[in-house]
Amino acid sequence: MRTFSKITAIIIGILMVLAISIFLYLQQAQFDEPSVDTTRISYHTEHHYQQGAFNNDTTTNVISSQQNQLMAWYAFFFTEDLNAIPNKPLPSKKTNLKLLNKQDNAIVWMGHSSYCIQMDGIRIFLNC
């Protein structure tokens, strides 16, 4: 029983040293709040940067303290989202990647979060 207590104390000590080390490491300048050089903000993005922070044009629903995770799942599965179906069909064009001219620049959405990007004769397939 005495060895178990010693091993437990050693493990707790190692975990504490590790936690303190990580905490101190994360206090370095590169982990600080990001700073934004406001002189380099372009005309097109300046309306997104207001009062020292970037802001979206549209609001995004987040789970608040009044709504717990269970209620969010219930709403996701059992309530109708009126904006889930577009008013008209989304434009799409069937593309055969083998027939694309390699010198044409193109971005092809492969589905969900996959893309084929072709620029200057180079093809890159991304799965984000």
What structural keywords apply?
single chain, 128 residues, alpha+beta, 2 helices
Summarize the helix and strand pattern as letters. Answer: HEEHEEE
- Could you tell me the mean pLDDT? 80
| Residues in helices, as a percent range | 25-40%
Radius of gyration over C-alpha positions, nearest whole angstrom: 26 Å
Cα distance, first to last residue? 51 Å
The helix/strand class is alpha+beta
Low-confidence stretches: none
- Placed side by side, the strands forming the largest sheet appear as 3-4-5
Summarize the biggest pleated sheet.
3 strands, antiparallel
Number of strands: 5
**What shape does the CA trace take?**
extended
Beta-strand portion reads 15-25%
The count of helical stretches stands at 2
Describe the structure.
The chain has 128 residues and is an alpha+beta fold. 27% of the residues lie in helices and 17% in strands. It contains two helices and five strands, in the order αββαβββ. The strands form two sheets. A three-stranded antiparallel sheet has the order 3-4-5, with no helix packed on it. The protein has a two-stranded antiparallel ribbon with strand order 1-2. A hairpin with a 2-residue loop joins strand 3 and strand 4. It starts with a helix and ends with a strand. The relative contact order is 0.05. The mean pLDDT is 80.
